[in-house]
Amino acid sequence: MAWLTGLPLAVDLVLGATLLWLAWRALSSPDLFQAVALFIAFGVILGLVWARLDAIDIALAEIPLGAGVTGALLLAALSQLQPAEVDARAAPSATEANEHQAGQPGQTAETADADEAQHKPAVFRALLAAVMGLLLFAALFSLGLVTWQLWEPSSGLTQQVNTHLPESGVEHPVTAVLLNFRGYDTLLEIAVLLLALIGVWSLATASNLGDTTPEPVLAALSRLLAPLMILVAAYLVWVGAHAPGGAFQAGSVLGAAGVLLRLSGWRLPAGAAGWPLRLVLALGVAVFAFIGLAVIGLGEPLLGYPTAWAKHAILVIELAATLSIGAILASLFIGGRP
Amino acid sequence: MLPSGAVWTAALVFTPLLAALACFLAPRAANWIGLLAAGLTTLAAATMVPTLMTDGPLRIAVGGWGAPLGIDLYADGLSAVLLLMTAVVGLGVSAFAPAYFGAHPQQRPWFWPLWLILWAALNGLYLSADLFNLYVMLELLGLSAAALTALSGGGPALNAAMRYLLVSLLGSAAYLLGVALLYHAHATVDIALLGARIEPGMLANAALAVMFAGLMLKTALFPFHFWLPPAHAGAPAPVSALLSALVIKGSFYLLLRLWLDLFGDLSRLLPELIGVLGAIAVLWGALQALQQQRLKLMIAYSTVAQVGYLFLAFPLAGGLNGTTAWRAVVYLALAHGLAKAAMFLSAGALLRFAHHDRIADLDRAVHRLPLTLTAFVLAGVSIMGLPPSGGFVGKWLLLEAAFQQDRWGLAVVVLLGGVLAAAYVFKVVGYAFTPTAIAQEGGSVPLSMQWSALLLALGAILLGFAAPLLLPLLEVGAPFEPIVGMPS
Fold it and tell me: What is the predicted ipTM?
């Protein structure tokens, strides 16, 4: 069985090489659809790399979020981009004329810049590009050199986290850090997600993504998968207290269920698309902030849950956050306000 | 029992954050919720002042864990003056917004939640003592700012917003890389602990380089300013005011903190380089501003120039009486915040009046909008650095530091920048007195828009008289002195 000892190393080498190759192909592919497909594959392999590095939590976040949700978002963006690209190619002169007519402030600077760039001789531009390229290369090279010297692992705050784990209300150190020790960051991260959705909603109304009647296979599959995914999400929240899992992972599975249902033709009832939807979207931040502030009334510091009921507080926060994250991700995929 | 300072500190972040949620849930009541939140947040910022003056700097362990395990909040004089400036500008812009968005009703329900989250992020940024928490704040700040830039819609604004978003993300990513390097080496992301543990070497230099590059990109220091003019000029007027007056100060504050607490002793060369870039920005930005045909673009290029001033302190800080230079640029940042907000708000009022912002066609605007033009001129006085404005105090302190160290070059840049600023401000004023060949019909401008601009401009002037109050506040916790020993 001596050959088995070399196996992990071989797996790592293959994973590393595949990762680099996929990254290069995704970046160099001229076809956007192919690039997105490669990017999704890249996310899956990256998840496996995290798993090999014993970072199961990151792997669990990377695969559904980095590959799944991001891939779905990129594909959704691509599907909206392509008609616009075709239009632009068909009538370039018309759009240009429109742009020149639109007398918006800010317009002048851009056109002036573009004109200036055209007047500069090609030699000058090539020289500038060469200098910038050299500078960038030097910067990346020295960064690589510094990173190379970091190969010795650092234990970071692991010791401290383990010492205080019993006071946190959960047994899994990652959940303890995310929901208790550094809960303030997590609260604001959920706000970042909500903010991204508000930003998207401020730009456009939802397009008719996937409006056609679904194929029977997709419809049957989603009827089968969606309840299962909701179950998995619930399990991931629950298990987060003592093993890898938690709100972000569960939320991304929930969001994926939402995407699947949407693609198979399911629509939110008109009555639920108004404030009920908004309430679900805002619930995560609201509940987290409410509990974090309410404990001040009990004489605790901001976001300092008393150890006795920290476990329950964290579970309530995680449930609310899961619902919100799932709803936000699915809404981001749909891409505009209802 | 908790000190009440901790409660007010929490209120500074959570009032605007929860109000943003409320605006999102009840868009029809957004104006009232927003104004109420603006008032409460300003109150919370004002309450910080007596607390800090009597009790000294405030350190709060969120969740009671304490650094390095948990996140610490820290407020000293430097945080307090920037929180106050943010509150005053925020209140002014909030008072301007209802009337402005009355004419753009489809933008209003989105302006409020985005702006309130931006306010929460700025307050959180000024209060944080934790490098990773600061990254989260930078993300909130950059995303909300980019979304606000896109609010006016249309090709150029969307283009500018997209470029702004990409620049902002690149800057944040570079900053995060530095945080990762420092955490790996020193097992903490608390600024005070890192300050005690950091040692000169390749790793510290690399962290310094990536974090400064990222933050200078976000602060739009020459030559990283390319994204600023289209973004700041293309946004709706109240958003332009927020971007120029406040958002840029956030990343500048972080640069300043990092330099003061972590990196100040690492490099002799870098501060000189930053100073040169700042000097070029002062002159080049002002020259560009002078050539603009449109008012909002002119004001945006003026921001490029004024950002340059903030970086002139770096080469002066190491020398004789170097802390004066820091005090000077912080004062300049405050004055620029008030004055530039007033300028963009008056540009918004002019735009509402004439439906264009071509400088050459202002057509006796001064007769028809005297309040707005007064606001513009008073703000201009502070931007130029004429007494008795806040800008004057800042430039005076900066010149004092430059003269004491015989840095005549920097002194000349400071003065020349002021002369150029005078040229572009008076160019606008000149056209505002001149009738054009074809007389223009103007629309009516709500008084709340005019008065909020005027009050902010008056604030920039009064800042000159407030020096005896603000400079002692700035000294609370001695932010400009090197850290000695560990924080308790």
Answer: 0.94
